[in-house]
Design goal:
Radius of gyration: 21 Å
CATH topology: Hydantoin permease
Bound molecules: phenylalanine
Number of domains: 1
Largest sheet: none
Low-confidence stretches: none
Helix content: over 70%
Shape: globular
Order of helices and strands: HHHHHHHHHHHHHHHHHH
CATH class: Mainly Alpha
Amino acid sequence: MTTPFAPRQWSSRFAFLMAAIGSAVGLGNIWRFPYVAGENGGGAFILIYGLTMLAIALPILAAEILLGRMGHKSPINTMRQLVAENRAARLWTLIGWGGTIGAFVVLSYYAVIGGWALKYIEFAITGAFAGDDNAATLAHFEAFVADPWALIFWQTIFLGFTVFIVSVGVTSGIERAVVSLMPLLFLLIAGLAVYATTMPGFGEAMRFMFDIRLSEVTPATVLAAIGQGFFSVSIALGAMMTYGAYLDRSVSIGRSAVIIALADTAIAVVAGIAIFPLVFTYGLEPSAGPGLTFITLPIAFGTIGGGVLIGSVFFLLLSIAAITSAISLLEPVVAWVEEAVDMSRRKLAVIAGILVWILGFGTVLSFNHWSDFHPLAPLGILAGMTVFDVLDYVVLNIVMPTVGLLMSLFVGWVLTREKVEEALGVSGARWVGFWRFSLRFVAPLGVVSIFVANVLI
Ligand code: PHE
């Protein structure tokens, strides 16, 4: 039987790595990491982040890529197949469903924030920040998010790009986009960080980021670190599983996972090095929350020579980082319907995009008309959170840890060592032992204890 859709396979290891790093490096690194670190005490958070990345996120990342390559299908069908092959309980198919639905939900708000990045290209090009102080950039930001139509306009453009790339196909769409865009992104972030070293607030920023104040570590810090780590390396939402499904058997999964996690962490830290010196130089609040990137960076772009160019390119690349992540959130959904429905990829991508677009209105309104609407407050939980806050909280703190835990247990306990080694193409390697130990004990205990701690706080 021939497949009704075009074969889906990366043409090289480089293409896979760029796609996977493109997925990992996104708003999570440049927009979210600095403000979550800022809200959680800087250095204390970054230390815990590094540790949980190594002990929990990295092993699960390798497990997820492996699961994808074992099934060669969308996450939902890969898990169905692996469950059948291994006579495992149906419960494990939750990995595919939870991840895919989670990806759909995340994309709905990701596209709204991605739209902000696009809008900021326009601000930067037109020199809107020239001479701005903190009050002025704040005013720009607040005026922008207060207008739901403006947010929907930019959300639509962002999703349009995303849908277009996915609709063209894996090799001619996704691969072609990431292979040229990612190297550019690396260069630009590095340039920005180098510039930040010349700022008066650089020293204070480094102390904030790298001084370790263990007294500030709470269970909530660890929960935030695990959630951010999962989000940042794109695990537990089916993205890496889908990308793994398109990966040739000759490529080493262990090595690839290390490269992806390292690149992702490095870019997050470099983003912090680029952003915090601005925060301290201008006497801003490092714990300012989600507005940090969109309010603090523009001050510099309005002040430095060549700021129009630098600012425009920065927001262009921030947008690109976001788009290369967004396509990896749409691909698991499209891959699945492509297997299930006899319709062209192009149509399916558009239909999925429209559904995501509509769900995104909840996030759009969270910043204006619904800013005082707290959907779960009547239930007495997550009070004070907007629709956007609730979606973000539930996916990051509940869906992703649950799916991550299940993947860890599935590869660690359900699959035998022989099966795993065969799928990896190695035999008797030392690292496989360490890795399985982490999947069987360390990662699950870490995730579960954080759950428990969080419930008890
Ligand atoms: N890793 C992306 C980021 O840091 C977000 C993402 C999460 C993308 C999960 C795909 C899957 O922005």
